[in-house]
Write a structure and sequence with these properties.
The protein is mainly beta. The protein contains one helix and 41 strands.
Length: 546
């Protein structure tokens, strides 16, 4: 596979506009962190060796923090709602989704699929921080290059509420809560700025340019802002193949000096890209780790973890295995977890009355057209023949390297013209589902759904296979091979009893162009082509791996 795209020098700003020193390979002496704490004896346990990626699901532009004995991370979600998931871990290896920092993308009609669409907009690289003085989590991110939004919560699960809107769009921002409780934001693309916020975090006090990226380096963005041992650091990415860091001993506004952390480093996923972006975090025992992500399309961008040591003069060094980011490392020495985290795979029977945080909608849903009550009911919300325009499409990340989603669908309340089923959703898509027309009901496999580079629909799909349906329930299945590379297959099948499955239609060749940014997802949908009023009920979703 040609992986030249992993070395693209375009920033995400450039991609969107167009569409509308020290290498880590140099192993330095282990001198500990600049904020070293000794291990605290028997209250620390080292987990078994872990394997990268630590999460083989699409979580990009990671920010990572520790609050007490718990680690939290945030990620980009673009047009998916709710946005900015908050992940939680007790050991940096095993993660669960605790909630979302942005409950609804209320940033304009396009995020409601109302006359316009928000594909590849929305939640980009943002920042997650915790402020001890008021025991509050902060999420900060810019939307559409127009303004910055700040949300807060006293628990990762929420509720999250909007604190303020700031007129300056802090592109690729990193939020720092300084030791004196002052809030600072590092942001920018190549020109790096630092802003100071008011004590209540609602307004900007000042902003100042602190660094200009040398032309020999190219683009730097994806700021993460730290104060470590009295020094200020801005951690920056060179998309998508490098990582640099700025250091100031004079204060948050600099001056800063720069050092390369890694460049063109071999990553831990065969065929995948260079680990980059993400953030640094310190464990309770003083050890440091770098949680980056790896471009691994068609599956998306997946998190990878590596230990970090520091030079005597205060620069981070990623610890390598045979000159590369390790596929495996010893687990972090941390306290025993208080409980097991909730798996990101397995069965969801939609018990209770709320969706679990593993689910995100394609754009904002029409909340009057769906419900959870020991089963998921999807009432048609849009009359369209274009799935990309259909509201209330509910998505789930695909587990790599290969996984299968199986759903049990009750289609008895569908109406003529309705289409409901299970899709592999991205800018080129396909689905298996139930079609109800005047002549009857059939299970159908449809491919050829596509968008162009401006994210306008160029294909609404063609039925390429079908079979008769009897009864009111059907099991639908989609399997996806999301190992990095071109031409990976996605396949579809169905069953009338949940045991014997019949393949339907040809394989979908999964697209692996990076410009859509988000990876493929499994998607549950139900839309009308004639009139609203129909509904389906999903009583079981199961995500399994071989």
């Amino acid at each position: 596979m040609d992986m030249s795209w992993t070395r693209h020098s375009w920033s995400r700003r450039h991609a969107l506009t167009a569409a509308t020193g020290l290498a880590a390979g140099t192993l330095l002496p282990l001198v500990g962190s600049p904020d070293t704490a000794s291990a605290r004896g028997s209250d620390r346990t080292t987990a078994a060796a872990f394997t990268n990626p630590v999460i083989w699901q699409d979580f990009a532009d990671i920010d990572v923090i520790r609050v007490g004995d718990t680690f939290y991370a945030s990620a980009s979600t673009m047009h998916y709602s709710p946005g900015a998931p908050v992940l939680r871990s007790y050991n940096l290896v095993d993660w669960e989704i605790a909630g979302h920092s942005v409950p609804v993308l209320d940033f304009g009609a396009k995020y409601d699929l109302n006359g316009a669409r928000g594909y590849v907009r929305g939640i980009w690289a943002s920042s997650l921080a915790y402020r001890p003085s008021n025991r509050t989590f902060y999420w900060l991110g810019q939307i559409d290059f127009a303004r910055t939004y700040v949300y807060t919560a006293t628990a990762a699960e929420g509720p999250w509420n909007r604190l303020t809107t700031i007129s300056t769009p802090y592109y690729d921002a990193g939020l720092l809560v300084d030791t004196d409780d002052t809030l600072y934001v590092a942001y920018g693309n190549s020109t790096i700025n630092v802003a100071q916020l008011s004590a209540d975090g609602r307004t900007q006090v000042r902003t100042q340019q602190v660094f200009t990226t040398p032309s020999s380096v190219g683009t730097l963005e994806g700021s993460r802002f730290y104060k470590i041992n009295g020094q200020y650091y801005i951690f920056l990415t060179r998309p998508a193949n490098g990582q640099y860091i700025l250091k100031s001993s004079s204060g948050p506004f600099g001056p800063y000096t720069m050092r390369q952390v890694l460049l063109d480093l071999r990553g831990p996923i065969a065929g995948g890209g260079v680990p980059h972006q993400g953030g640094l975090v310190q464990t309770q025992s003083g050890a440091w780790y770098y949680l980056a992500f790896v471009d691994a399309y068609p599956g998306g961008r997946v998190p990878a973890l590596a230990p970090v040591t520091w030079t005597a003069d205060g620069w981070p060094v990623v610890q390598l295995v045979n000159g590369a980011w390790g596929t495996s490392y010893p687990g972090p020495a941390v306290p025993p977890p208080p409980r097991r985290v909730t798996p990101m795979t397995g069965v969801d029977t939609f018990d209770g009355t709320v969706l679990k945080p593993r689910w995100e909608w394609n754009h904002n849903p029409d909340n009057s057209k769906w419900s959870v009550n020991d089963g998921l009911t999807l009432r048609t919300a849009t009359v369209t023949n274009d799935l990309y325009w259909a509201r209330n499409t509910l998505t789930h990340r695909i587990q790599g390297p290969t996984s299968t989603a199986t759903v049990l669908l009750d289609h008895s309340a569908m109406r003529a013209g309705d289409r409901a089923g299970l899709a592999l959703l991205r800018d080129s898509s396909a689905w298996i589902g139930v079609r109800r027309d005047g002549t009857g009901t059939r299970v159908s496999m449809v491919n050829g759904l596509a968008m162009d580079a401006n994210w306008n629909t160029t294909g609404t799909g063609t039925e390429v296979a079908s079979a008769a349906v009897s009864g009111s329930r059907i099991w639908l299945r989609a399997s996806a091979d999301v190992r990095p590379g071109a031409g990976r297959p996605g396949t579809f099948s169905y069953s009338s009893d949940g045991t014997t499955f019949t393949r339907l239609g040809p394989a979908l060749s999964l697209g692996n162009d990076w410009r859509f940014f988000m990876g493929y997802r499994f998607a549950l949908f139900n839309h009308a082509t004639q009139a609203l009023g129909g509904s389906v009920r999903v009583t079981r979703f199961e995500l399994t791996t071989p």
